[in-house]
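Work package 3, deliverable 3.1, input record:
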Amino acid sequence: MKKPYPEATSALEGVLFDGMTIMAGGFGLCGIPENLITALRDSGIQNITAISNNAGIDDFGLGLLLQTRQIKKMVSSYVGENKEFERQYLAKELELEFNPQGTLAERIRAGGAGIPGFYTKTGVGTLIAEGKEHKDFNGETYILETGLIADVSLVKAWKGDKEGNLIFRKTARNFNPMMATAGRITIAEVEELVEIGELDPDQIHTPGIFVQRIIQSKDLEKRIEHRTTRKQGE
Amino acid sequence: MAWTREDMARRAAQELRDGFYVNLGIGIPTLVANFIPEGISVTLQSENGMLGMGPFPTEDEIDPDLINAGKQTITELDSTSYFSSADSFGMIRGGHIALSILGAMQVAENGDLANWMIPGKMVKGMGGAMDLVAGVKKVVVIMDHNARDGSAKFLSECTLPLTGVGVVDMIISDVGVFTIDDNGATLTELAQGVTVDEARQRTEANFNVAEGLS
């Protein structure tokens, strides 16, 4: 089975359907699978449940799929920067499930590792704990959270080889490695797609077993949300 | 004169100890990094997956792959490491971070914290705040002592939905410093020019006053 695909549209062929659950990597706009998100929008599929830490901004990232109303439900930890999101949510056109960021990360990690549930102290005594099983360990109370898996995971890496081995760069790693493990099908886009043997096996973050399809990104924008600088010499 | 935001950040920096791994929240807590006492080395954690945060970049150093949890561009240090969000919150939840400094909408006298949601208003989400307050060893809140309408934010009980139960160990506000432990809340320091009476007037919570303060 050949993993490399020529571009994002063909990489999504045959795996999309209305009502599916999709994980998309990234923190804010950092480390998001830009090409795959655009291709997903252009596919026109509807009623997506999107699991992603954030919801992009109005005209970039998952915000593109909100503009076209292809997302039915978001599972996120923070959605602050998106006015269209706010409008759809307040108009009850969009479902929203907030997860504490660490709980979201661990639910995805657990899902990919075959762990259906785990106990955490995060959120005990808050709205997040309502309706969840509580259990005491060593005198402290924890709540049960469940693992998450997706029909398709879309991830972004820095380098990848034709075997699907991935290396991430700096804070663009974020949710991508766990999401790669938690997709029934995982599609990766990489800035540099190299031949087998070109990556140092000791430096690989995500082994190729978790990646079914891979493309080389084209025309990446890598937009910055808050450009903060200091003056030279400060 | 009550404390300014810089004064609060400077006071919070005194809670840092050599060798601490620290997570600073967005807003005033971020300023604490500017007041790290001389001779003390601390490592700043950013929950999106970085230990060892450097200063903001110069125009030439900007890298879209390198941001902090506030989504601001940032730089790395020689000691920096990067990791996934799962590893990041493993550090946080697992008690490996010594100190978290964050903002608050309300704090209760038993240490309950509310800082993520106002019912009826658009909710942006809790981000990593619930994980931080549940997992980090010591939680310090920096906040304006009163809301813009003058109402108290340090209360006998929070009225807003909670971020964590009994999690706050210290409040640093424009009024002064309060510690919270099994004996309840205690006013331990007053900002210059603030009296105990004024602190009481501006607070709804019950608190003790440390010996020597008047």
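The radius of gyration of chain A is 18 Å.
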